## 1
Amino acid sequence: MEQSGQIKRRYRRRKKSVNEIVFMITLMAIPVLHFCVFWLFINFDSILLSFQRFDMQSGNWVWTGFSNYRELYNAYIMPNSVLPRAILNSLSVFLWNDFIILPISLFCAYMLYKKLPLHNAYKVIFFLPSIISVTVLTLSYSYMLNNFLPDLFSKLGLESLIPFDGYFADPDTAWWTVLIYGLWSGIGGNIVLISGAMARIPTEVLEAGKLDGLSLLGELWYVVIPLIGATLATLLLMGTSVIFSYFLQPKLLLGDAADTVGGYTIALYIVNNVRDNGTPQMAMGATIGVLCALVGTPIVLVTRKILDKAFPVYEY
């Protein structure tokens, strides 16, 4: 009897371990499949595609070596090329996000954290642009700049502030309208994340700062920022990704005029080329993507290294 009981217990343990293995394999199958299809395969195929060209006569892809890279370089150095301005615009979005939008978000979040009057209402107002569809938001923003502001300036006798072709069609103002839209629509999401990090700060630490005579700005600089450094580092690191991924906002705001008003970004250049020229231009899009990966990976790694040193993680 005792021996049969041991056999049953051993059988249950073996069955339990088999069930756990099956469960773990099932649990990991979807993310592994997702990684293999949507990251590994797509990236590997993009690298191969950058060395090929679509033959219109045969309808097949043919191997052409580095011809796509040479063609891209020629497109960059040709007169009136949009690529140099696209690179500058993409870098300006990164600088705008990390050094303008994020500091403003931090300051607003801190003011709300100190529970100013109507602070909960302000949280909702700031966050509203983040939950509204980007299409609806850009339409509202376009209406404000195309109709509301010109009418207002006309009534105030400030017609000189209205560009002849409109804010979105004037090369001097078009890109600024995109940047200001980014500030208007992006500040709310940052405030929510930063406010959540501030809410975790122990009140004892803040009280100790008050006893030491810290002002509001001193408390923000010496106490709050170091303790929420991990969240700020994440937001700063995420800001580097916009260099190679920012296209939807200028696309919706500037439309086809992005070419003539200096509103191209690297990502918008890829999207427009593939959309307008279809399959034959996919190789050029893949070529730019490979170059972005080669340039962007060191930027992200170096930025991460700097942020890890600038914002050490504190346990509290």
## 2
Amino acid sequence: MHKNTNPAIALVESIAHTSVADCYQCGKCSAGCPQADKMDVLPSVLIRMVQNGDVKEAAATESTWLCVGCLTCSARCPKSVNIAGVLDALKQISIRKNCIDSKYRRTVTFQKAFLNNVRRNGRTNELEMVAEFKIAGFLNDFSIPLALKDAMFGPSMFFKGKLHLKPGSPVKDKALVKRIFDKCSKLTENENDAVE
């Protein structure tokens, strides 16, 4: 993989571990994508946007969040460009630059609640995670219906043994989980603020 001189493109390539310059726009990724009919910008066009340095614009598309990570696009690429990795990199950049498509802000809120929960506990504590997600989601959009949306499922889940009110036993090596999070945090700190 060659070293890209454009810092925004280089950032995408370093996160995705691929070279977007290798793409010659055959369109096989878009043709095979199971989500293509719902996307505002096709995967091949997103790759072209990144090749042109329009990384922030590509990260702000709805398509970035519609990618389900099935890897069909990457598997079909005759040049072995990690297209799914590029879309994942665009998700990360959209979070850093706060240019997330508004429909997917709650998805990001849930992901953050999940990761915070695992970071604190070494595993998920369902009630704590749901509480953090619902409070953060409500503070973002003040939607009472969305805050209460899943409340009716609580009693039936509890009686079926699917909702545990008591936290599970702690993981044996919480320090290992902490080291994983510290290493990931260090990697993202080392990446420069390349996307403008």
